[in-house]
C-alpha cells in the first residue's frame, strides 16, 4: 500500500508559493508605508507648511526653481515653515531677519550639516564642507582657513599670481579675435587655477584634458546633487540598487573625480620636506603626521581627498558662475558696461594691469559685482544645514538633527530691504555721491560659523578678473542674438551656455603688461 503524505507537510505547490510570496511582499509594503507615513508627520510645535503628497512629500514641487517656490510658500506659511522631502521633515528659513536670527544669533544651534544618505555615500560626513559639526570640522576648517590666509592674502606675491592668470585668461580670449565663443571653459579653468595654486602650488594649462574632464564631472555633480533623483535617494537610499537614474551618474562621477584627486595629491606632494609646506596638501600632510599618535585625530588620506575636492569645487563653481553672469549682464546692459569702462580708464591709466589697490577707487565696479551676486543668487539655497540641538524660533520648536534650508535668494529679494528687487541695478550699492555703500541684507556668502571660508579670495578674484577683462574688451552678443537669463538649476545657479564676442577696445595697451 502506497503511503499518502498529508498535503500540509509536502512541498508547497507553485500557486501556494506564489500566494505566500505575494502576501509577504504586501505585508512588507504595508509596514514600509506605515513607517514612511509616520515619518511624514510634523512633530508637535514644528513650523507649518504645504501639504505633502503621501510617500514623496513635496519633492516634486522643487523640480523647477525651488528657491522661487520656497519664497512663494513663505508668503503663505510665514518666514519659517517646513516641507517634507519624502519623510525628511525640513525647515526652510526665509528673509533676512529670520536667517540672521538663526545663523547669527543662534549660530551654535544651526551649524551642523544633515546626515543625508548622499553626503554619507560621497564623503562619509568627513572632509570639510559636508562634515558634521564636530572637532573634525573645527580642525579641518581651521587648517583650511590658515592655509588660505598663509598662501594667499598674507603673501603679496599671490596677487601677482592672480594677475598672471588674468593675463593668460585675456590672452586666451584674444585668440577668438572678437568672434563668438562660449566663455564657460576658459573662465572655469582660469578661476580654478587660483584655488589650485593654493592647494597644489600649481596651475593647470587651459588644454589639460584630464583636468578639464575632472572639473566637468565635478560641475555636473553640483547640478545632480539637488536633482529629483538625488532627493529621492536621500529619502529612499535603497534606490542605490536601481541600476538607472541620475544618482548612478553622480556616484560614477564622484568615483572618477576621487581617483584623479588621489593621483594629483600623490604627484604634488612628491618631494615634500616636512614643516616647509609649499601648499595646502603639504600643510595637511604635516598636520596628519604630527597627530599620528593622537587617537582623536581626524586627519586622514581619505579626509584629505574629500577636503581637496570640496575646496576645488566650492572655489571654482561659485566664482566662475559669478563672472559668467557678470559678462552676460555687461553685454545685456551696454550703458552699465560703458560706465565700467569709464571708471577703469579713469583709475587704471597707462595700460598697467589692475591691482587690488585700485579696488577702493572703483565704487562702480564694486557696485556691479555686488549687484551680480545679489541678483544672480549663485548659491540660492546655501548649503543644507541641520540643528545641532533643540531650537526655538518664532515660537516654533525644531528638534535636534532637523535639516534646515537657508533660502538666500529670499534675502536678496526681500522687499523689506530692497526696492524693486527684480530689477538689475548696480546703483542700489551707491550713495548720492557715487560712493560704494554696504547693504545689510546681502548674504551671498551666507552667515555664521559655516559661512563661506573663501569669501576674501573670491572677492580678490572677481575684482581682478573682471577689471582685467573689461579693461581690454568690449563685450557684446553675436548680432541678432540675446541669450536667456533663465538660470540652469543646481546647487549653484549658472547661466545657460551662451556665446559672446569680446572685441578689443581701442585703448592703447602695451603688449607686455607691466606688473606693480
Ligand atoms: C562668489 C564666490 C562664492 C560664493 C557666492 C560662495 C558661497 C558660499 C555659500 C553660500 C556657502 C554656504 C555656507 C553655509 O553653510 O551657510 C559657502 C560655503 C563654503 N565655501 Fe564658498 N562661495 C564662494 C567662493 C568660495 C571660494 C573661492 C572658496 C574656496 C576656495 C569657497 C569655499 C567654501 C567652503 C569650503 C565652504 C564650506 C564651509 C564650511 O562648511 O565650513 N567658497 N560658500
UniProtKB/TrEMBL annotation:
Main subcellular location of this protein, as a coarse class: endoplasmic reticulum
Topological category with respect to the lipid bilayer: Peripheral membrane protein
Membrane keyword on record: yes
List of residues binding heme: 452
Pathway: Hormone biosynthesis; vitamin D biosynthesis
Keywords: Endoplasmic reticulum, Heme, Iron, Lipid metabolism, Membrane, Metal-binding, Microsome, Monooxygenase, Oxidoreductase, Transmembrane, Transmembrane helix
Class of this enzyme: oxidoreductase
EC number(s) recorded for this UniProt protein: 1.14.14.24
Gene Ontology annotations for the cellular component aspect, listed alphabetically: endoplasmic reticulum membrane
Pfam family, one: p450
Subcellular location: Endoplasmic reticulum membrane; Microsome membrane
Highest taxon above the source species: Eukaryota
Cofactor section: heme
PANTHER family: CYTOCHROME P450 508A4-RELATED, VITAMIN D 25-HYDROXYLASE
Subunit annotation: Homodimer.
Protein role: A cytochrome P450 monooxygenase involved in activation of vitamin D precursors. Can metabolize vitamin D analogs/prodrugs 1alpha-hydroxyvitamin D(2) (doxercalciferol) and 1alpha-hydroxyvitamin D(3) (alfacalcidol) forming 25-hydroxy derivatives. Mechanistically, uses molecular oxygen inserting one oxygen atom into a substrate, and reducing the second into a water molecule, with two electrons provided by NADPH via cytochrome P450 reductase (CPR; NADPH-ferrihemoprotein reductase).
Name of the protein in its database record: Vitamin D 25-hydroxylase
Species whose genome carries this gene: Sphaeramia orbicularis
Gene: LOC115437606
Amino acid at each position: 500500500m502506497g503511503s499518502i503524505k498529508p498535503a500540509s507537510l509536502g512541498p508547497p505547490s507553485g500557486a501556494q508559493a506564489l500566494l505566500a510570496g505575494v502576501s509577504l511582499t504586501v505585508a512588507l509594503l504595508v509596514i514600509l508605508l506605515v513607517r514612511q507615513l509616520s515619518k511624514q508627520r510634523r512633530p508637535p510645535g514644528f513650523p507649518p507648511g504645504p501639504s505633502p503628497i503621501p510617500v514623496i512629500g513635496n519633492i516634486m514641487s522643487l523640480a523647477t526653481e525651488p528657491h522661487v517656490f520656497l519664497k512663494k510658500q513663505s508668503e503663505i506659511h510665514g518666514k519659517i515653515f517646513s516641507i517634507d522631502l519624502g519623510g525628511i521633515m525640513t525647515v526652510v528659513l526665509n528673509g533676512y531677519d529670520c536667517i540672521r536670527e538663526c545663523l547669527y544669533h543662534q549660530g551654535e544651534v544651526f551649524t551642523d550639516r544633515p546626515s543625508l544618505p548622499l553626503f554619507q555615500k560621497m564623503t562619509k560626513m568627513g572632509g570639510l564642507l559636508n562634515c558634521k559639526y564636530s572637532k573634525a570640522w573645527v580642525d579641518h576648517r581651521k587648517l583650511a582657513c590658515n592655509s588660505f590666509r598663509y598662501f594667499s592674502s598674507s603673501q603679496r606675491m599671490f596677487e601677482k599670481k592672480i594677475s598672471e592668470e588674468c593675463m593668460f585668461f585675456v590672452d586666451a580670449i584674444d585668440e577668438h579675435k572678437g568672434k563668438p565663443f562660449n566663455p564657460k571653459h576658459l573662465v572655469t579653468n582660469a578661476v580654478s587655477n587660483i584655488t589650485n595654486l593654493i592647494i597644489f602650488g600649481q596651475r593647470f594649462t587651459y588644454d589639460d584634458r584630464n583636468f578639464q574632464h575632472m572639473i566637468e564631472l565635478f560641475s555636473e555633480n553640483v547640478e545632480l546633487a539637488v536633482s529629483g533623483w538625488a532627493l529621492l535617494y536621500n529619502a529612499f537610499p535603497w534606490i542605490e540598487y536601481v541600476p538607472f537614474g541620475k544618482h548612478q551618474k553622480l556616484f560614477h562621477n564622484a568615483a572618477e573625480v576621487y581617483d584623479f584627486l588621489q593621483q594629483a595629491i600623490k604627484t604634488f606632494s612628491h618631494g615634500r620636506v616636512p614643516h616647509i609646506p609649499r601648499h595646502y596638501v603639504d600643510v595637511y600632510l604635516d598636520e596628519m603626521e604630527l597627530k599620528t599618535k593622537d587617537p582623536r585625530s581626524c586627519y586622514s588620506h581619505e579626509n584629505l581627498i574629500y577636503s581637496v575636492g570640496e575646496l576645488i569645487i566650492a572655489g571654482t563653481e561659485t566664482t566662475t558662475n559669478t563672472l559668467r553672469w557678470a559678462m552676460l549682464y555687461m553685454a545685456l546692459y551696454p550703458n552699465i558696461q560703458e560706465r565700467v569702462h569709464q571708471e577703469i580708464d579713469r583709475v587704471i591709466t597707462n595700460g598697467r594691469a589692475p591691482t587690488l589697490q585700485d579696488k577702493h577707487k572703483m565704487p562702480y565696479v564694486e557696485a556691479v559685482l555686488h549687484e551680480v551676486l545679489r541678483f544672480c543668487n549663485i548659491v540660492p539655497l546655501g548649503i543644507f544645514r541641520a540643528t545641532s540641538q533643540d531650537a526655538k524660533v518664532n515660537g516654533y520648536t525644531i528638534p535636534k538633527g532637523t535639516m534646515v534650508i537657508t533660502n538666500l535668494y529670499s534675502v536678496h529679494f526681500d522687499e523689506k530691504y530692497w526696492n524693486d528687487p527684480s530689477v538689475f541695478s548696480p546703483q542700489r550699492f551707491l550713495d548720492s555721491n557715487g560712493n560704494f555703500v554696504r547693504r545689510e541684507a546681502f548674504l551671498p556668502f551666507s552667515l555664521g560659523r559655516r559661512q563661506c571660508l573663501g569669501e576674501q579670495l573670491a572677492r580678490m578674484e572677481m575684482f581682478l578678473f573682471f577689471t582685467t577683462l573689461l579693461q581690454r574688451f568690449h563685450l557684446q552678443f553675436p548680432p541678432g542674438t540675446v541669450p536667456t537669463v533663465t538660470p540652469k538649476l543646481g546647487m549653484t545657479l549658472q547661466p545657460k551656455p551662451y556665446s559672446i564676442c569680446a572685441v578689443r577696445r581701442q585703448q592703447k595697451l602695451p603688449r607686455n603688461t607691466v606688473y606693480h
